[in-house]
Design goal:
Blueprint: H1 9-14, H2 18-39, H3 47-56, H4 66-115, E1 118-120, E2 126-128, H5 133-136, H6 146-177, H7 192-212, H8 221-234, H9 238-261, H10 270-290, H11 296-307, H12 325-330, H13 340-356, H14 361-364, H15 382-391, H16 394-401, E3 404-405, E4 412-413, H17 414-418, H18 439-451, H19 468-487, H20 491-495, H21 501-510, H22 512-519, H23 531-535, H24 537-540, H25 547-557, H26 561-581, H27 586-615, H28 619-644, E5 650-654, E6 660-664, E7 675-677, H29 681-688, H30 701-722, H31 727-748
Parallel strand pairs: 5-7
Antiparallel strand pairs: 1-2, 3-4, 5-6
């Protein structure tokens, strides 16, 4: 929906449905009257009676043609008028019901958000609305986090968008029905849904004809903007998406984007380039929607698209040079959820093409035509684009990494080819900086496969495990995660795949429960040390990745600063929840708390070493990084532990500038799970507290360690104080915690620390 046409919250709130309800009643009466005129009833003469008499009468001369035709045509007009009136009634009735629901949704959202101190303005924007102390009587009132505000904004925006769509579709339908006041049709819609599909089909046909005229690269900015607006309005409407795709055909779809994205003069620049970036996103989502169609025409389109994979699409037909079909199509797979079967078949054919090609992948995808906006220096790697498509479809991604290509001796699993680093693994094409490109896309695909939701989901939630099918899906995800843990066992492996680190951190956070469970198995004691019950292994469907593998994986991931921040916050939230899950058993609370201390030690030591290796003899720079780590942990402890423990079965934490991760907790609130959000204030806080060269900033590694230890201890001290533990008890607890923390550091220590 074009944002300029979106209803505001005030407009939707003030919308009075009484007039529309009256119109529905009036048209219902009108339909009854017209139907009686058309077909009869109550013993009255009708148009159908006149038509019957006209057809059976013994007409002579001119009357046999002219008069009979006039009577039958007039009778038909009565029937068409009744049908048209029924269409008007259907549109008005459905619009009334839809607007009623939209108003209820907005009212409910405003009320619920108000309870969280979030105010919805008349224009649809949201903001924090914490009452002053004088109003609350001095009681502390929690302000909503940035993440809660973002989620609230998304909720309100979605409601207003849906209401605006109802308005757009209904208004267009009524204008069409009233287009000719002296003629009627019996081909009108029977519902608003029929209207939507019909409008989509009409728009698809219009733009098919415009594209068929050729020279799409000469489209004006105004025309391109109109096309983009149509895509934005119709990208989730099969009436448009399927007819648009099949109308162009597979080859036509590819040639269209190739011509639009890279005309003879080269890449587009300026404002038009920004507009093309929007077109690319909306076209990708439109084709993703279309791929779910199962009509013969859509099935043919999907097969033809795969068949066109190796075909070149030149700017000039007389010069058979240009990007091939796989490159063009993969550039249109960055957004939207494509059909599972199509992704399987397309990806398998693409990998077969690449593996059979005489040369490495860089040679196979050597064409450098600009296909993506904004333009980048990365290669036109079809596999990288396809990885992002998998990143939006968890089921297809999981299936693909469990599949294989090739036959006989040439058979190789997709996992080994794409992720592995042994003989036969893929050589990822390098960018202009000389580093392999596309591993960030690979990470996106692995995220969706192992976590069960799209990698860029703004409000992720942990998939449920209530049914057998859901449990099987969970086990399949943890099986794949086990391979991830085993593969990325050192920082060197991660360094050779630049861009994958942030995804690994989110995967580690999403499976922090199984990683904790796996690490609690010193010397193979896991089967008899009670970890099954303490971690709720069966209930939470945890996987054992192996103690050594889990430690090595966490050590490798935590070497990166951003990854360390993400996983540390996840460990604090999960570790605290495991303590809470033990109930009143003080012994078990202490046991799982000590284990969490060990996990923190593993992560902290890894980051200490990484800083030492990174800065070498630059001690002051190393100290600044360690200070930064400690200060971040100080903030994260309060933010996560303060909001996460005791209220949810999953907590969302920020994991980068534009991503979030759902971290599992060890228990669920009776009556159902509730989500608590850790604020994106973490990121804002980091920006506001960048470290400089002042004396205050250079306090050294000792304080960084102190802060790290303090934050690891926070859940234990909270528990000790709540449970009324004596001073002696806290003394003993602290000594045990220090030992557990240092044990974790020892497990993570590679004896390769430099710089301090």
């Amino acid at each position: 929906m074009a944002t300029t046409d979106t209803l505001t919250a005030q407009e939707l709130t003030d919308l009075r449905l009484g007039t529309l309800s009256t119109a529905v009643s009036d048209w219902k009466t009108m339909v009854g009257r017209l139907e009686r005129l058309a077909t009869g009833g109550d013993g009255e003469l009708s148009a159908a009676d006149l038509e019957k008499k006209a057809n059976t009468a013994d007409w002579k001369g001119v009357n046999a043609t002219v008069s009979r035709e006039f009577v039958t045509k007039t009778a038909a007009q009565f029937a068409d008028a009744a049908a048209a009136a029924k269409s008007v009634l259907a549109v008005l009735r459905d619009a009334h019901d839809a607007f009623k629901q939209h108003k209820e949704d907005l009212r409910t959202a405003i009320d619920e958000l108000g309870k969280s101190n979030i105010y919805v303005h008349g224009n649809g924007n949201v903001s924090s609305s914490v009452p002053p102390g004088a109003v609350t009587g001095g009681a502390e009132v929690r302000a909503p986090t940035d993440e809660e505000l973002d989620a609230a904004q998304s909720r309100i925006t979605r409601i207003l968008w849906e209401a605006s769509e109802t308005d757009r579709i209904a208004a267009r339908a009524l204008r069409q029905l009233a287009k000719n006041e002296y003629d009627f049709t019996d081909q009108g819609p029977g519902s608003l849904k029929d209207v939507d599909r019909a409008q989509g089909k009409a728009d698809a046909e219009y733009w098919r004809k415009e594209i068929a005229k050729g020279n799409v690269d000469d489209w004006s900015d105004e025309k391109l903007a109109r096309f983009n607006e149509t895509l934005e309005d119709q990208r989730d409407n099969p009436g448009f998406t399927e007819n648009f795709a099949t109308g162009l055909g597979a080859d036509g779809t590819l040639q269209f984007w190739r011509d639009l994205a890279s005309p003879p003069g080269g890449a587009v620049e300026g404002d038009k380039a920004k507009l093309l970036a929007q077109v690319q996103e909306n076209l990708s989502m439109s084709l993703a929607n279309a791929s779910h169609g199962d009509s013969p025409a859509m099935e043919a389109w999907k097969k033809d698209m795969i068949a066109a994979g190796g075909k070149p699409f030149p700017v000039d037909p007389s010069m058979p040079m240009g990007p091939n079909g796989f490159q063009v199509m993969s550039s249109l797979m960055g957004k939207g959820k494509f059909d599972n079967d199509f992704l399987h078949d397309y990806g398998s054919a693409m990998l077969k093409y690449e593996r059979d090609y005489p040369g490495d992948p860089k040679t196979a995808w050597r064409d450098s035509t600009t296909l993506s906006y904004p333009p980048s220096s990365n290669p036109n790697d079809s596999v990288a684009g396809f990885m992002d498509a998998l990143g939006h479809n968890p089921e297809a991604s999981l299936d693909f990494f469990n599949g294989s290509t090739g036959q006989g001796d040439d058979k190789l699993s997709n996992w080994d080819y794409l992720v592995g680093h042994d003989k036969g693994a893929r050589e990822w094409p390098v960018g202009e900086d000389g580093k392999p490109a596309g591993f960030d896309n690979l990470g996106h695909a692995l995220e969706s496969a192992t976590l069960g939701y799209p990698y860029d989901e703004k409000n992720p939630s942990i998939p449920p495990t209530k049914t057998e099918a859901q449990i099987e899906a969970r086990e399949a995800r943890t099986d794949l995660m086990s391979r991830v843990v085993g593969n990325y066992s050192s920082a060197d492996v991660i360094d050779k795949q630049p861009g994958v680190s942030d995804s690994l951190a989110r995967m580690a956070s999403g499976h922090i429960d199984s990683l904790n469970y796996s690490a609690a198995d010193f010397g193979g004691s896991g089967e008899v040390n009670g970890r099954e019950a303490r971690f709720g292994a069966d209930k939470n469907h945890l996987a054992d990745f192996g103690s050594t593998s889990a430690t090595n994986f966490l050590r490798a991931v935590a070497a990166d600063e951003d990854a360390y921040n993400t996983v540390s916050a996840a460990q604090q939230a999960y570790g605290s929840s495991v303590m809470a899950a033990q109930g009143g058993d003080e012994g078990d609370v202490k046991r799982v708390a000590m284990h969490s201390m060990t996990m923190h030690g593993i992560l902290d030591q890894s980051r200490f070493e990484s800083i030492g290796k990174e800065f070498g003899d630059e001690k002051e720079a190393a100290n600044r990084e360690l200070e930064k780590q400690g200060a971040w942990r100080d903030f994260a402890a309060g933010a996560v532990i303060g909001t996460g423990v005791g209220v949810a079965s999953g907590v969302i934490i920020p994991a980068g500038a534009a991503a979030a991760i759902a971290v599992p907790l060890a228990f669920e609130v009776v009556g159902g799970a509730a989500e608590t959000h850790m604020s994106n204030q973490t990121l804002d806080w980091l920006k506001e507290n960048e470290f400089d060269n002042t004396d205050e900033a250079l306090k050294g590694i000792d304080k960084a360690r102190d802060v790290g230890q303090h934050n690891a201890m926070t859940p234990l001290l909270n528990y000790a104080q709540r449970s009324g533990m004596s001073d002696d008890g806290i003394w003993d607890l602290s000594e045990d915690a220090e030992e557990a923390y240092n044990k974790g550091r020892t497990r993570s220590d590679t004896k390769d620390v430099r710089g301090f």
